[in-house]
Amino acid sequence: MNLSLNYLFQPSLNRFNCHYSCHFFLPPNPKSKPLSAHFGHTTTTIKLKFNGPDSPKPTSIQTKPASDVNPLPYSSLIQDCIDSNSFQRGKSIHTQMISNGYNPDAYLMTKILMLYARSGCLDDLCYARKLFEEMPERNLTAWNTMILAYARVDDYMEVLRLYGRMRGSGNFSDKFTFPSVIKACIAMEDMGGVRQLQSSVVKAGLNCNLFVGGALVDGYARFGWMDDAVTSLDEIEGTSVVTWNAVIVGYVKILSWEEAWGIFDRMLKIGVCPDNFTFASALRVCGALRSRDGGKQVHSKLIACGFKGDTFVGNSLIDMYAKCGDEESCLKVFDEMGERNQVTWNSIISAEAQFGHFNDALVLFLRMQELGYKSNRFNLGSILMASAGLADIGKGRELHGHLVRNLLDSDIILGSALVDMYSKCGMVEEAHQVFKRLLERNEVSYNALLAGYVQEGKAEEALELYHDMQSEDGIQPDQFTFTTLLTLCSNQGNDNQGRQIHAHLIRANITKNIIVETELVHMYSECGRLNYAKEIFYRMAERNAYSWNSMIEGYEQNGETQEALQLFKQMQLNGIKPDCFSLASMLSSCVSLSDSQKGRELHNFIVRNSLEEEGILQVMLVDMYAKCGSMDYAWKVYDQTIKKDVILNNVMVSAFVNSGRVNDAKNLFDQMEQRNTASWNSILAGYANKGLKKESFNHFLEMLESDIEYDVLTMVTIVNLCSSLPALEHGDQLHSLIIKKGFVNCSVVLETALVDMYSKCGAIMKARTVFDNMNGKNIVSWNAMISGYSKHGCSKEAFILYEEMQKKGMYPNEVTFLAILSACSHAGLVEEGLRIFTSMQEDYNTEAKAEHYTCMVDLLGRAGRLEDAKEFVEKMPIEPEVSTWGALLGACRVHKDMDMGRLAAQRLFELDPQNPGPYVIMSNIYAAAGRWKEVEDVRQMMKMKGVKKDPGVSWIEINSEIHIFHAGSKTHPKTEEIYNNLRHLTLQSKGLGYIPDTSFILQNVKDIKEEEEEEYLLQHSERLALSLGLISLPEKSTIRVFKNLRICGDCHTATKFISKITGRRIIVRDSNRFHHFENGKCSCGDYW
Q1: Where is each DYW domain found (predicted)?
Q2: Helix, coil or strand: residue 58
């Protein structure tokens, strides 16, 4: 009976395919007699045991070799098991071979080795190794089998050991050896090993082999040797998408996006069919390049290749469109995806957060959870970003609690997101606490906290964190670190610190980064160092629209508006199309030049390029026309705008107010359906700028009553209003509101306004307290405090602060020098003032302006060096202005130099004939010399020219109410008490040596009787305000009086006596400075 082997051994041994003829001869009683098989010319006896008479399946195989037995049937059986992954059956065959005493030859032994090596079981691999080591002879296949087996289980060290032994045994490597060994070198980061293997591959002529060459390409790409990777790729015969993917990924890894795109484009052109990994990589490249058009091309190609439904590719599409800012396509891909996974939801939530649609991100997050997907570190990070964007600290705290409960708050990604969330919500202390609890920190967490410090103006903390980043954690700053620090320097106007950061950038070799270079341009422009900004800008190898905009804005901010306009033209010649920001800067330049014609040209450009519906340009056009005096055009732009948002309405309100059309402003304000804090700020600032202080205050009170939230800008406006009144008690109340609202240490502008307000209200110590408590100080803050000391006559304190400012790395500017020169003048430090004036120009490269020259004339004149002052004026490189001649005239009054005073007055009469000040001062000089005819001549000159003396106005604040007095005022409810008090004080003062100086009466003695002269002096406005303070304020309290003109000389003398009689500290602020009267002396030293 003949039975085919296929039937007899199936399915226990599966099919046995071989080119030998094979027949089994079944004996009559197969249960007891052996079955003989004839293979060609060889006979092998095989004993079969059956389970039953009806079952042809053998339960065991016993073989017994004869001297002429051929091992080929076993080799074929073992190979069949290997090919079908039937490793257990193969091992059973091997077991039977051993039990039957069969001794395999080298060929069969290699097959058995393969069986155990490829099973994937570690025990089998160990057994394979044992068999391998026991082999008397090892052929190349045996070596390759073991090398490949260890490579499969990632035991790369053993791969390299075996490879070394193989080479030592004299075996040559082939196309099966090299890929595994190259893979091992890659895994062990043995770059030298890859280089050596490449040499061996070339010698073996295998560099063209698809698998060997592909392994080399992968190695080079992983190590970033992209030129070598591309060279090896070009040498390979045939194509493999895996190899091309390796090159693309290699370029992506080193951020060479353009080169990665070039490889992708090339593989398409030569006909290599991309897989889903290729498309995902190409989409990542498009996202990094922000190339929406390229992404669209890839999208079309992947659809054509049948990958539209691939979830992996779909996720990459969402990410690409998100990075390219195409929200519509992003959402469309998401909506059309048939199958979504966790990554899909993470991607779309992250996209919505990136688009700034934080509410939508939160909705998607909740929807994801409803569908059974879990929150993880990626989507929670996006939700924290959304919370930060919404400034939703409640949601942020809720997420923080969730992270703490799930022990995720120390995770570096989520922890960094928490730091970012708290920082953006203005809670930098909480951000710092989260930061400290992070088990591991990276540049992202450091940058998040650093940005928080910069946002809050905490310069010292920011710089300390920057140093800790490197010294404690060894983290190198990246471009985001440096741009954040440069923003800090820009905000503070601290170019000294900015230059240090610039030096660090050079050492870190990050200066050739377009983002960093542009931020450097912006920083130097903000700090007034336009030459540095220009040098960097023109050195840039590449400039984008933002770079051009920064330089244009720099010119515009520093008053070089013509240069800004020229650069705007050059920008277009260089092929950069102006965007909304560059056009906005140009419109701002038109405002600086009051050039409405140029503004109309820009308006036409905007219309031609269909940009007239851009909100920022609508606002800037209205603002430009209004400030250039073309209110009709401003109204036309406003009226023709279809969608009028609250910002445009606010600008139009401000335009009306600033043009004096307060009623129109109020009407528009009342008609606005939506009014926000900015709306109120617009009208408040408008009234305040127009000097309508009472109306501004009333609107502020109305704003509070209407439950509109005031902000930092509101408080800056009202605090500045208190400065201009001045009104200390109102200022104190505002300061309390600022503290209650939590605005302390959150705005350097507001805190600087408080310093200025307290200084101008005569509370210099309160100003210093605010200044000392500021976390972030910019150059304006330092100048405000130094100027305050200077105006109060505290020259020593001004100099100390000036030195401290420079030690802190703050670079003095023209305002600083003006303040410190004024301090020199008040202190009589002539030589020091001259030194600083010279140093300002030679050492600090700060050009002296008219104000500085005026200050120097005042300095010399105050010291009695009138001839030097006159010579200084005559040698000025610029034409002396009214203020310069006025300083000389004032010095002549103090030192009673009538001749030089006449010269200065004559120049003032020519330059500013309608200014009554010089006439009054010259009249006082004549009166002091008893030249009454000349006094009358001055009076007649004023009458002939129609010049009227500005009425003196003084005021005092009592119980938050401001009391205003004019000369001779008799309308106050306490008039009688005020005058009686003054008469009484005058009598007491005379007893101490006071002699009324009637020369400070402008009228001719013929107009006033001699016995009435002293009474006339009592009617001066500052003396009336002082008297009210004395009878109304508690004993020992400081009295603060303010006057719009220079304090009268007689009043100045009388106030010294009054301070001694009453024991009061009296502060009088006139148009020039503060006078601190105490115990019969004045801080001005009788020179003002």
Answers
A1: 993-1088
A2: strand
Which string of DSSP letters, residue by residue, matches 947-991?
--PPPPEEEEEETTEEEEEETT---STTHHHHHHHHHHHHHHHHH
Task: Tell me how far apart the alpha carbons of residues 609 and 619 are, in angstroms, rounded to a whole number.
Answer: 17
684 vs 689: CA distance, rounded Å = 9
User: Tokens 């909480």 — which residue?
Assistant: 430
2: β partners: 25
Cα diameter, the chain? 166
In angstroms, the CA 696 to CA 1034 distance is 30
Spatial contact of 96 and 115, defined as CB atoms under 8 Å apart: no
Asked if 743 and 777 touch (Cβ cutoff 8 Å), the reply is: no
Q: How far is CA 246 from CA 176, 225, 316, 417, 442, in A?
A: 20, 12, 18, 32, 28
Contact 746, 426 (CB under 8 A): yes
Whole-number percent of the chain with pLDDT over 70: 91
E strands, 58-214, in order: 58-64
The pLDDT of residue 177? 78
Residues 858 and 886: their CA atoms lie apart, in Å, by 9
Is 212:179 a contact under the CB 8 Å cutoff? yes
- Tell me if 1084 sits within 8 A of 1057, measured CB to CB: no
Q: What radius of gyration do the chain's Cα atoms show?
A: 45
Task: Quick: pLDDT tens for 948-971.
Answer: 888 889 999 998 889 999 988 999
Q: Give the DSSP H/E element, type plus range, for residue 23.
A: strand 22-25
Q: How far apart are CA 874 and CA 131, in angstroms?
A: 109
Q: At 5, is the pLDDT very low, low, confident or very high (cuts 50, 70, 90)?
A: very low
Give the model's confidence band at 11: pLDDT under 50 very low, under 70 low, under 90 confident, else very high. Answer: very low
Both tokens of 251, joined, read 């370029």
> Does the pLDDT at position 898 exceed 50?
yes
Predicted confidence band of residue 191 (pLDDT cuts 50, 70, 90): confident
Residue 739 near residue 733, CB atoms below 8 Å: no
Span 671-679, mean pLDDT? 85
Look at the chain and count its residues: 1088
Phi, psi of 848 (to 5 degrees): -75, 135
pLDDT at 107: 78
Average pLDDT over residues 440-453: 88
| 961-966 and 1039-1043 beta bridge pairing | unpaired
Report the mean per-residue pLDDT for the chain: 83
Tokens of 478: 């990246």
Q: Which DSSP category does 1085 fall into?
A: T
Q: How far apart are CA 941 and CA 174, in angstroms?
A: 114
Q: Is the pLDDT of residue 687 over 70?
A: yes
Q: Could you tell me if 657 and 674 are in contact, meaning their C-beta atoms sit under 8 angstroms apart?
A: no
Which residue bears the tokens 């203005």? Answer: 426
- Distance set, CA 846 to CA 311, 779, 830, 837, 843 (Å): 63, 15, 20, 10, 8
- What pLDDT was estimated at residue 72? 58
Residues 6+ apart with CB under 8 A from 737: 710, 715
Q: How many C-beta atoms lie closer than 10 Å to residue 504's C-beta?
A: 15
- Torsion angle (degrees, nearest 10) of CA 419, 420, 423, 425: -120
H helices present in 357-494, as ranges: 358-370, 377-389, 393-405, 412-424, 428-437, 443-455, 459-471, 479-492
Relative to beta strand 2-3, strand 1074-1078 is: unpaired
- 804 within 8 A of 820, measured Cβ to Cβ: no
How distant, in Å, are the alpha carbons of 660, 677, 691, 709, 983 from that of 714?
Answer: 21, 8, 16, 9, 45
pLDDT at 1065 over 60: yes
- Which residue type does 116 have? Y
The predicted pLDDT at position 71 comes to 54
